[in-house]
């Protein structure tokens, strides 16, 4: 007889889900649930009751939203969840950041421009890039009415492009409740991997507030 435990499936956030959860700060039931999952200290087993609790919606509406997120590859159900990355943000950042650039050069700034961590850059260059990242974030905020509402553009990321439109360095804004961070990535970003989910999860567990 198959045990009940063998049928347990866990909710796993996919890279696209981590990106959507933090790409903006506008109120959104799906985004709120994704952020709660990302900030969890343990792997959460799937159940309709848990999804209802996480969303605050009626069970039918909660299940519909969960199915939509799964169809968009924002979340998936797995028998063996990824191991939770633990430790201080400062100690984890170099390894987490290294996998987000095709040449291993990245940095993370807070909204004031303070460099929380970097890999591949000299310290002074990382600090200057993080200061630039904060300036670009403020610039976008001043023009958000045009960019995000009138033009309907999603996100707040900026990039310095080469003549054929490829990124030479990109600045990716991460929203966690009232907190805002900017990820600096040299050359080609690699956000479609679990390393990115781990980074967002580590930041969410440390900094998420509402």
Please tell me about this protein's structure.
The protein has 210 residues and is α+β, with helices and mostly antiparallel strands. 43% of the residues lie in helices and 19% in strands. The protein is built from 8 helices and 7 strands, in the order E-H-H-H-H-E-H-E-E-H-H-E-E-E-H. A 5-stranded antiparallel sheet has the order 4-3-7-6-5, with helices on both faces. A two-stranded antiparallel sheet has the order 1-2. A hairpin with a 5-residue loop joins strand 5 and strand 6 (167-176). Helix 1 (15-22) packs across helix 2 and helix 1 (15-22) packs parallel to helix 8. It is globular, with a radius of gyration of 18 Å. The relative contact order is 0.17. Residues 1-5 have low confidence and may be disordered.
Annotate the secondary structure layout.
Blueprint: E1 10-13, H1 15-22, H2 29-38, H3 48-55, H4 59-71, E2 75-78, H5 89-98, E3 106-110, E4 115-119, H6 123-142, H7 144-150, E5 158-161, E6 167-176, E7 179-186, H8 194-207
Antiparallel strand pairs: 1-2, 3-4, 3-7, 5-6, 6-7
Helix pairs in contact: 1-2, 1-8, 3-4, 5-8
């Amino acid at each position: 007889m198959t045990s009940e435990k063998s049928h347990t499936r866990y909710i796993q956030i996919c890279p696209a889900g981590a990106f959507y959860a933090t790409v903006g700060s506008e109120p959104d039931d799906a985004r709120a649930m994704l952020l709660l999952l990302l900030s969890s200290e343990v792997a959460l087993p799937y159940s309709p009751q848990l999804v209802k609790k996480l969303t605050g919606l009626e069970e039918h509406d909660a299940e519909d939203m969960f199915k939509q997120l799964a169809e968009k590859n924002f979340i998936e159900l797995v028998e063996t969840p990824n191991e939770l990355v633990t430790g201080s943000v400062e100690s984890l950042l170099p390894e987490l950041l290294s996998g987000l650039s095709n040449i291993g050069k990245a940095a993370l700034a807070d909204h004031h421009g303070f460099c929380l961590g970097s890999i591949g850059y000299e310290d002074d260059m990382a600090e200057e890039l993080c200061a630039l990242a904060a300036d670009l974030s403020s610039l976008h905020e001043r023009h958000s009415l045009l960019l995000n509402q009138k033009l309907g553009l999603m996100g707040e990321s900026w990039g310095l492009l080469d003549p054929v439109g490829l990124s030479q360095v990109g600045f990716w804004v991460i929203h966690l409740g009232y907190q805002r961070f900017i990820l600096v990535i040299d050359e080609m970003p690699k956000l479609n991997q679990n390393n990115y989910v781990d980074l967002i999860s580590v930041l969410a567990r440390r900094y998420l507030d509402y």
